[in-house]
## 1
Amino acid sequence: MAKKKTIRTIPQERTPMREQDPQLRAKNFEEVACGYSLEDALRESERCLMCPDEPCIAGCPVGIDIPGFIQKIGEKNLRGAYDILTDTNLLPSICGRVCPQETQCEGVCTVGESLEAVAIGRLERFVGDNAIKEGWVNIPYIEPNRFRVGIVGSGPAGMACAADMAKAGCEVTVYEAFHQPGGVLRYGIPDFRLPNAVIDAEIDNLKKFGVKFECNTLVGRLFTIEQMIDEMGFHAVFVGVGAGYPTMLNIPGDSLNGVLSANELLTRCNLMRARDFPNFDTPVPIGKRVAVVGAGNTAMDAMRVSIRLGAEKVYCIYRRSRTEAPARAEEVHHAEQEGVEFHWLTNPVSVSDDGKGSVRGMRCVRMELGEPDDSGRRRPVPVAGSEFDFETDLIVYAIGTNANPIMGQTSKLKLNKWGYIGADEHLATSVAGVFAGGDIVTGAATVIEAMGAGRKAAASMKTYLGIRDPELPYLSAEGGGAGTLFGIDTRERNFARVRVA
Amino acid sequence: MKANAMSNFEIVAREDFSDVTYLLEVRHPLMSKAAKPGQFVVVMLNEQGERIPLTIADFDRNKGTITLVIQAVGKTTRQMQLECRVGTSLYAMVGPMGMPSPISHAKKVVCVGGGLGVAPIFPQARGFKEAGAYVIAILGFRTKDLIFWEGKFRACCDELILCTNDGSAGMKGMITDGIKVALAGHSNIEEVVAIGPPVMMKACAEATRAHKIKTMVSVNPIMVDGTGMCGGCRVKVGDQVKFACVDGPDFDGHLVDFDDLMTRLQRYTKDEKVAHERWSESCRMTRQVGPSALDALARVRAPQSELLELPDPFEDAPGG
Ligand SMILES: Cc1cc2nc3c(=O)[nH]c(=O)nc-3n(C[C@H](O)[C@H](O)[C@H](O)COP(=O)(O)OP(=O)(O)OC[C@H]3O[C@@H](n4cnc5c(N)ncnc54)[C@H](O)[C@@H]3O)c2cc1C
Ligand SMILES: Cc1cc2nc3c(=O)[nH]c(=O)nc-3n(C[C@H](O)[C@H](O)[C@H](O)COP(=O)(O)OP(=O)(O)OC[C@H]3O[C@@H](n4cnc5c(N)ncnc54)[C@H](O)[C@@H]3O)c2cc1C
Ligand code: SF4
Ligand code: FES
């Protein structure tokens, strides 16, 4: 047994991750953060104190056994680390890259109280990437049952639910409206942050579990949720269609050419490969001076994509201050390195045109922070007389999304007052056998939360179908969720006997 | 031919109405059951292709097919004209999208189709007929050679007014002249439905405004996903902003801001031109390859000198 580690004995500095040079990367779509080497990972794993109270586990929305997997890395047992991660997290190489760790596990890490927190996300990514490289996949021993499960939407929520139901022996079909699966991971988050190869690898793993993917299928319109249950022979359905519907600012000039949603910009560029135009047919507007409104992950992605598409200047317009910006800290930092000009406490008032239907500029007003609002953040209020104009030819709105209306239009599912699908704490909807989770229930959130919701819904679905001990999570609302936000019972984690592939 | 092997959106029939207009019948049994008048699909010709919206012009539940009638106006629609043969497949086709057209209980209805709007108005005309209405169809074409589906419309309409710009068939004049004739002949028209290029729909809405006749139009903004996710298809309807793909595509023609729609349709004109030029260039290269390609190309390329200049899809709109 090694000597007990203390805050003094561990490596003091967080192990840096190699990144592409900002000058260089601003011109390509290759991944910015290059990942840890084995040496980096071993050194960083040294920094974990293996705290008995495991605050990081409570900080993780799905309760990954963080010290457990870090210990395995330290033992150079990467396969073991991978097994621990995949007990709870289906998508380690994705979550390692895109989770807001600084507000989750790393935010409560003991080391973080006096030094920089253990780089849990980077370690997670390291293990996940290694698994992809080695072709590891934990294919459990699956005993088929007679149940058929339909999943609507192939984002992280749908993928997670599909995996759990397939492992439980159900025949699972995932329906996706786009021509490629992955949800926001595919159409929204750009390659330089999450390469397509990583998504492909995770989807392939699901296929190995026997999950079928049916793309080009718009559920609700091609067939309804009710038809899936009544006519198509599905015993249960999970709805994870995401939030989607982008919010526009509703200011004068909104409909000018050159004003678009971040979703449109990103979908054209990522999913439709407009950045390779004209090798691919889909065009994307390329601005010289691009103003992106908002400061979430979506906004950062839109800015960094614009830079790579060749914009000379990219501005971030945000009505609150930097501390309130919802994006991952790393994304803001990267955007800054790549030359984005931030205008905090600034709000657009109107968009002016060039007389030919296109954007010429934007009028903004300065803001200051007033009293805290419902979200606990200080409410920005305009400073009288502080309007100013500046030139821009492309304006991208990244100010959030609303519920996609198709499910509401086409089914009897009860919606809440904001139009999201109403679900109880077990993620059951108002229609028997239909469960829902992810952004379409909570509103725009995070990949890991969507995944957690997919797994939680799977647990409820199993109870509903009577697949396992019916006393498990569905009935034990209080007990079941001990310590984890999504109430995946620890006993649930490893139910399938694992056969090493 | 990777795309063909992986997908099952097989083209089972094709008909060429003219140099620029062609019909594709695509196998999709589920969709043929689900489709309702007014809905559309989004198709991709191949993996590198653009997603383009096309109205479901007809569906055959027995054969399990849906019918698209397409006007070759730019890169994608021309390439489809060249490559979509019976037996080949589309890379992707998703739908039916959009809210079905509300087939009201109006007793006397005028269905107006101009240019690329002729085919999409058909399921609505048939829908109204099935609902028991007296249906007057007004179809506008530039000239006699471009006419198609006349018989199909005659079979399901009580009256048919055919207009050509040059008077080579039916009455000479714009589609709005046809509307005037219909309004003069019938005092009890309860609803007008118009589909075609925006200029035409705008003119139709203006023609009925004074008569206070409910006028529905089907807008055709640029789309990407067709699922309400990008907002590219937003249109101004009254004082509201609507996403045509999920809130429409049918709206009250007296409320739609057509000028805004037309401006927004020109967003990518430059890029569309680049894509088309490049593709035409590559077609020229393969010209030696085979007589059939050459053959089709010759048709695509007429009128000769127009190759590099994109035809304005609104220009040849009757009523425009
Ligand atoms: C640009 C961007 C960047 C982001 N960055 C981060 C980040 O760094 N970290 C993070 O944690 N989170 C991030 N998020 C948020 C995160 O991606 C989402 O919270 C998460 O993807 C939600 O997952 P979901 O499964 O609920 O839905 P989605 O990922 O939205 O997937 C829903 C899928 O359902 C499909 N669908 C919709 N309607 C239908 C239908 N009727 N029939 C069939 N299929 C349908 C859609 O096409 C889509 O593929 C980002 C979001 C965006 C937009
Ligand atoms: C709901 C809807 C239904 C439609 N139904 C039909 C139909 O039944 N038959 C038919 O021939 N056409 C239809 N269209 C129009 C058709 O989608 C466009 O003609 C096609 O996208 C042009 O693509 P292109 O590459 O050939 O031409 P491009 O060179 O890309 O463009 C030519 C012209 O088409 C317009 N356009 C370009 N891209 C789009 C797009 N993604 N969506 C809409 N317009 C676009 C542009 O304003 C441009 O002026 C419909 C459009 C909509 C929105
Ligand atoms: S809180 Fe930090 S140091 Fe403690 S176990 Fe978790 S990762 Fe290790
Ligand atoms: S086409 Fe994207 S929202 Fe309508």
## 2
Amino acid sequence: MEMRKDFLNMVDLSVSTMPQEKTIRTYHFRITSQIFFVIVAILGIFGIGMTGFIYPFFFCPASPAACAGCPIWVIEHGTLEIASGINNGYMMILYLIGMFVAIGALVGRSFCGWACPVGTLQDLFSFLNRKIKSIKVLSILTGVSFLMLVTGAVIPTILANAKVDLQYYMFVGYIGSLGAFLLALSGVMFIKRFKSIVPSMVLLFVGTILWIFAIISRSIGLEHSPTSSLELMGLFGLMFQITGLVGIIRTILGEKGPKIRPMKGIDRWGRLGKVGLLLLIAPTSWFFDTLFFTDFDPIGGITATIPELLLNPSGWEGNQFFWYKAVFVVGVLVLVSFVDRGWCRYLCPIGAMYGPTNKISISDIEFREDKCVHCQLCIKACPMGINPKENKTDPECIRCGRCAESCPTGAQVWTPVNSTVRGVFGK
Amino acid sequence: MKQKRKDPVRKFGGRSIPGIVLIILIPALLIGGGFAWFWSSDLGGFEEVRKLASVKCLGCLGLDPVVPGFSEFWVEYPGDHDRAGEDVDHSDKVISIIENDEVEILVLFFWTQGCVPCAEQWDEMVEKGIASGKEDGGIQGDRYDKFRMISTDAADDDDGFYVTYRPTGKETGVPMTTFIFQDTDGSIKWWSHYGKMDIGPFMDIIEDIVQYLEAARLKDDYDDISSIDDHH
Ligand code: SF4
């Protein structure tokens, strides 16, 4: 705020004389919408069985509280059915395409910014990354995350032993998962804040200890303790180990800044990764005759595998895909801890599906050139790392509205009907 | 002059589609997309998603359940089941198969589309001559006599076998293998395993059932003879 005021003074404007444009301030709406859609994603907690709906975002149907199918999973199943001559496969694919076209025509890629639980998790990461400055607060976050994780791992086990129906306690598993993710984030933040190699070494050490702990507690016969779950402890161990390694590499390379800003070339080319993934989903399912992407999918790992493991730590063991999945889960968590909306930028095939609809969608973020004072605040605010002034219909824009929120003069405006259409009607 | 590097992701600076095209295109896509969405959901898309999603593919989860190994066959629903102690609703189809003199053991194998552990278990069973054909519509192989296998897509199970024989009554995931036989006293006994079943324990259970039935028959014969002797 201070900076903004300084700037406005500099350009001979003041907040009081600023044009009082009637813009829709989206912040509260967006947060409410994101919370609402997280609840929608896990409606299974309330005993709602599986419906035939498809989530308009990424969420694994194998998740303990899922109530709908995932778009990527639908592409895979549709492909498999078409490959084996089952007509319902076409219907599933058409069902998905119809839904995406209708939503896209209406709101473009807004579901990434306003609804997707994976996006919400990334926003939470960025928020904490930005806000937490002191080591004291960071330590509190670490402690709270650890408590959440322990709650998620221990309470369901106690309830299961007491033969309590887990149906209504599934949310504990999700709290534990969130704790695990925040713990990963805390690790990254420690690396960033302490400009030394020590926190990275500590993380590497703690990660290794977790593995040893799991192996020992299993070998001395603590089968029913969460600590004997190689999968659970190994996954968290891996999380710390990889975070520690990234930290060590960063320190050696000398990059100690608070945030990695991907180099422009890598960033732009990297964004094609998600399109590549999207294009590979159907062919790989057809060729390998399986749900190929889903088998390795890190979002399935985050939204389904980790909550399941927390709900019943000693009830599962990894199958042949588990450790691949674990590596991808950790990779994604580390990526999104370093890069705002890293998953949406580079890897999300659902974002790649929605992207082109930004070109035609009826709602829009509008830029009013005449009001722009070139303060660059919108560029700084954009979590997708694009230039909001240039890219109003860029497939990369998730329509989050942060540029509009940050604009001091109302040059960026979220609008329900885009200016091109309004222009036709002379408004 | 320094040449400008090509940007791999095309920037759409401003909208290049004319407004007049857009006001035709947007309603067309909205109506077309909405109609396709509604129409295809009604014609099977919705039901297909529901069916497929209601069976948890353990392969996709990256996890296998740690389940207790075989300890006993059940007559009623077992202790961990929602309906523990209640009678099992065996379908007429199961009863007619199991009461047939030609069949001693019935195995129901449950799989779902795209499930890797299911396909692996099926392939192993085919390799050992226990099963034959494809997973979809597969039947018994020629390894055992008086043995019947029904391979069922758990997401497309019109007979309701999958729901009936889940060992906890809740969704447990596929693959799942159910062993059913009729004891000499006429009761139907069964046991289900969920998660991929190794071929060794699978064959052990078949051997156990065969030996159990043989012993039970011998005992019955012995009891019959003793009772005749007693009469004499
Ligand atoms: S351009 Fe604006 S609306 Fe689009 S992603 Fe960036 S901040 Fe959000």
